[in-house]
Design brief:
By secondary structure, the chain is mostly beta strands. It has one domain. The protein has 3 helices and 17 strands. The N terminus is likely disordered.
Amino acid sequence: MKVRSAFLLVPCAALITFAYACSDSASNNPPPAGDAGSKADAAPGVDAAPLPDSGPPPTVGPVELKFEARVGAEPFACGKTYAGIGTSSATAAAGDLRFFIHDVKLLRGTEEVPVTLDTRAPWQSARLALLDFEDKTGECEFGTSGTNDIVKGSVLGTGFDGITFKIGVPEDLNHLNKDLQPAPLPGSGLNWDWTNGYIHIAVQLNSMKLESDGVARVPPFYSHVGSTQCSGDPADGGTPGCALKNRPTVRLSGFDPTKSKIVLDAKKLYEGSNIDVNTPDTIPGCMSSPSDPECPPIFTRFGLDFATGLPKGSPVIFSVEPR
């Protein structure tokens, strides 16, 4: 009986071994996803490495972009005069400084994170913001009484180290009836006409030099950049469009919206210009005409290719400083 019992146990053990070898546990199939690296699979006495903690996901928070306008080391202010302007080292009075911005993005390394603009009349819509540093006093006769040096919005995340934005009114908003548009367009005072749209940026310093008669002042030096070579009048059923867009793109590194401000230095704009003189039979200063000899040095400092109207580097008049 003992011999027979031993004989019967052998095939049973063999069957159990065979069944185990044919099971999923002993097959060549990989373990189910999620099992690899588990504590059960770790070598005896060795704990599996914990998964890295990525922290909480980024959230959307408010952001405030601070701008400042200066002429050299001095604040831009209507009623003030400034020395050493342009190639003639002219003395000049503040005349205007306003500009639109859109397509604002904060930079984090190579990542560009869009800023959603607040709707904040009369200075902002969800698409567009107006910076205005004149108050219609002194020689700032073409401006408005209100001023604005802040752009407010919201952005996803933190840890930003740069900023980029476009100057001017977007093409799809540039040729609409200004009286039917939301702020900041109707009250900006920067509209040319339906066909040509808006002045994207206006900077003006007025030379204090007298004409040869010793009485009259030389004309103001306007620096008005807007789209040109435009055609199609909406009032007549046309579709407007401009061959020369003339919208600069600003890109600045080292910008932290919680600690930095963006500075526009009007003095730098005139480093290649003589604001004491103007070519006869042309509009004073530069109003973006493709044939105006006063425009090329202004466009260069605005970061624009004068021949094509396309961006050509970030404008040298903008920089980043601590708040």
